[in-house]
Design brief:
The chain is α+β, with helices and mostly antiparallel strands and 179 residues long. The protein is 68% helix and 15% strand. It is elongated and about 65 Å long.
């Protein structure tokens, strides 16, 4: 299957390094893959085109130069390398999410065993689950090639939500019983 690609070719002044770091963060956030120094690729889609345009504007704002190439065709071997790199990056993020969801489940279980939970702690747990969900949405949005781990993350986040809901119900019932 042939993919059409967007290529962002850019340069940013070497100093201060925060400028290069800012562009690098945006490229990673977009799920772009480095083809070589100063050349990054994304599959050509409306959302990725918009993202690269935004990054190109940022590069210009940082006193750099940016060129966006649309409709690029890349050889099959190099395409396979780019797709594999993108899948590996997404798989690593899914694994991080799996690990964090596991920590969250263990934390909620420990809290359940202690039973004397404050309202503030409950809010923090809900916020933590919200952060995990948000992070998952971001990873899924930049997983253009269906990396391993997405289904496991979705299942774990559902478990997290169920356990937290059960915990909240029990805490509320206990609070009502105490008066």
């Amino acid at each position: 299957m042939e993919h059409l690609w967007l290529l962002l070719i850019y340069t940013v002044p070497a100093e201060p390094s925060r400028k290069r770091a800012a562009v690098w963060r945006e490229l990673k956030r977009a799920g772009a893959v480095a083809v070589r120094d100063g050349v990054w690729a994304l599959p050509e889609r409306d959302d990725t085109r918009d993202r690269f345009r935004m990054i190109a504007t940022k590069v210009t704002d940082l006193d750099g130069q940016a060129t966006l190439v649309e409709g690029a065709r890349i050889g099959a071997e190099r395409t396979a390398d780019i797709v594999a790199a993108a899948q590996a990056a997404s798989a690593r993020e899914y694994q991080e999410l799996i690990d964090e969801a596991g920590h969250f489940l263990a934390h909620v279980q420990r809290e359940r065993e202690h039973r004397n939970v404050t309202f503030h702690e409950l809010e923090e747990l809900e916020a933590d689950l919200g952060k995990l969900r948000h992070w998952s949405e971001q990873v899924v949005a930049r997983d253009y090639f269906g990396a391993d781990g997405r289904t496991e993350v979705e299942q774990l986040l559902a478990q997290c939500a169920e356990l937290l809901e059960s915990f909240l119900e029990n805490a509320f019932r206990d609070a009502e019983a105490e008066g």
